[in-house]
Amino acid sequence: YMYKEVAQRLGISVKTVEAHVSAVLRKLQLSSRHELSRWAIERRLVSFDGGAGGRPSGPYGASPIAVRRDG
């Protein structure tokens, strides 16, 4: 997803999305969204099946921005 798409889906500004992504990357000591995607896939927070335009899918439906609340 592009920042604009995420912002629209969540009803927040693009700048807020950028700030949150930057904070997550900093806390996890990662340097890119690509590394963050791999980190999430390795921990089974999202899965990648190659479908949906090559985007990962989340554990609670088709949204790759779904958040696991059980762990």
Task: List key phrases describing it.
single chain, 71 residues, mainly alpha, 3 helices, 46% helix, 0% strand, globular, disordered C terminus
What does this structure look like?
The structure is a single chain. This protein is mainly alpha-helical and 71 residues long. The chain contains three helices and no strands. Helix 1 (3-10) crosses helix 2. The longest helix has 15 residues, at 14-28. The model is unreliable at 59-71 (pLDDT under 50).
Class from helix and strand fractions: mainly alpha
Distance between the termini: 24 Å
Shape: globular
Count of helical stretches:
3
Strand tally: 0
Element-level helix/strand string: HHH
Could you tell me the strand content as a percent range? Answer: under 5%
Biggest sheet descriptor = none
Estimate the helix proportion, in percent: 40-55%
Average pLDDT works out at 80
**Spans of at least 5 consecutive residues with low confidence:** 59-71
Rg over alpha carbons:
12 Å
